[in-house]
Amino acid sequence: MVQRVAVVGAGSSGLACIKICVDEGLEPVCFESSDDIGGLWKFKESPEPERSSIYRSLVVNTSKEMMCFSDFPMPADYPNYMHNSLLLQYFRLYADHFDLLRYIHFQTTVRSVAQRPDFSLSGQWDIVTINGDGEEERHVFDAVLVCSGHYTHPALPLSDFPGYETFSGRCFHSCEYKDADACRGKRVVVVGIGNSGGDIAVEISRSAEMTFLSTRQGAWVMGRMATNGLPMDMTAITRFNNILIRLLPNTLVNWAVERALNPKCDHKLYGLKPRHRLLDKKPLINDDLPSRILQGALVMKPNLKGFKDSGVEFEDGTVEENIDAVVFCTGYNGNFPFLTLFPPCLSQPTLAVMGLFQTKGPIMPIVEMQARWAVKVFAGLSRLPCKEKMLEVIESERKRNMKSYNCPRKAALQVDFIPYLDFMAEQVGVRPNFLRLLLRDPVLWVRVFFGPCTPYQYRLSGPGQWAGARQAILTQWERVVQPFRTRVVPEPESKPSVLFSPWLLTFGAAYSSVIYQIYTLI
């Protein structure tokens, strides 16, 4: 029977795993190679080998209500899209509230994870660690949760571009980028139009002489704000919208959403329009990129072809001379060097890797649900499908996503936010029962079905039920507006009128919301 569980890494997923293990009566032992919690979200002045790294100005692109832990709402006064330092502060609050730090061994690196000789009977693992003093220690664990993330091994494809050896400027990966100070007054090329590429290009463009953003395929650009300045993800990621998108033809949905985006920024005119349709790939979340193009501070360019002494050449044949630096925002390679064997199928699976997926929705709720499911499996309270069924599902998802992602590995990692969450919640026994909810609590049902799919929905019932989940859902919009309440705006005096009765206003708002969602389909 599983008792001791090794948790590798004390980032957001590691903290969630520790807490869930404790909830299930297991004994977690967490090994964290650095001296602090937070993982990726712990800003470091200089990059360290095989550790995640972020830039100083990074602001999350998922709003606080959508990305919080399911039983621990973020403080009401936090901004909806917060700076990385505030997110790290939230992790500290979470760790303090649930007393998680006592389970963490800091400055302890996991060197290897391997099956024990009697693994077929015991399901146990041998783990070798090295502490801060350089001393090697050996441990035996009943199960392992790998939470070290996959943003530790940068993909830097310099060899794909002829002439880089003689290029006079500097080439580096975005993991080395901290701020734009070193780019002041220079000519810089940013390669890659993911979220990091968009952020870095915009920031550099504020101080560089000229900034070029090179992209192979382009991207659909969405801001963080929806109608009335509300968080985009809270208006877009709802169960109602999810059903609409699944029922309606993809061509129609793509047309409607793209039509809603282009009036804000004509993607073709701005050189942003991608080859793919909007639903095929994750959009770029950036509020400032179009305005920097409009101001001429940032110039869109096609894919990089190669280097020419002090310049660079693009695939359309154009050349930009006197380039001082090229920043490669080209992603990361998933790699777990300490893992010597990953069993594809066990009689009682005792190893799980957290976070190996890509989605268009928030990441943290999925990681937390993965942890809840894995710990249930470890404790014998939930079962995985057979090996054949799992391989069948993986292959099916890979084929479905190959149209958008030419790389088989990337295609296999794509998941749809709400369906994937609901699937795992079904295994854990925490998926909301909508018929029962409608009959017993219609007010809550409306919020759950038409409102944002926030993590609290998976704490309403079943194992790990949280008594505060219902109230958290009913008050989530209050926490959204709380940080805006910094100045009292006087209301004009008006006489009461039947046209402005609370009932009519409520009905009108609900009706308008439904019509808007049907129109935008997001």
From TrEMBL:
Gene3D superfamilies: FAD/NAD(P)-binding domain (3.50.50.60). Its main location: endoplasmic reticulum. It catalyses: hypotaurine + NADH + O2 + H(+) = taurine + NAD(+) + H2O; hypotaurine + NADPH + O2 + H(+) = taurine + NADP(+) + H2O; trimethylamine + NADPH + O2 = trimethylamine N-oxide + NADP(+) + H2O; N,N-dimethylaniline + NADPH + O2 + H(+) = N,N-dimethylaniline N-oxide + NADP(+) + H2O. Its EC number is 1.-.-.-. InterPro entries: FAD/NAD-bd_sf, Flavin_mOase, Flavin_mOase-like, Flavin_mOase_1, FMO-like. It is found in: Endoplasmic reticulum membrane. Keywords: Endoplasmic reticulum, FAD, Flavoprotein, Membrane, Monooxygenase, NADP, Oxidoreductase, Transmembrane, Transmembrane helix. Its cofactor is FAD. One of its GO terms (cellular component) is endoplasmic reticulum membrane. GO terms for molecular function: flavin adenine dinucleotide binding; N,N-dimethylaniline monooxygenase activity; NADP binding; trimethylamine monooxygenase activity. It holds the Pfam family FMO-like. It is a single-pass membrane protein. Belongs to the FMO family. Broad spectrum monooxygenase that catalyzes the oxygenation of a wide variety of nitrogen- and sulfur-containing compounds including xenobiotics. Catalyzes the S-oxygenation of hypotaurine to produce taurine, an organic osmolyte involved in cell volume regulation as well as a variety of cytoprotective and developmental processes. This is Flavin-containing monooxygenase. It comes from Sander lucioperca.
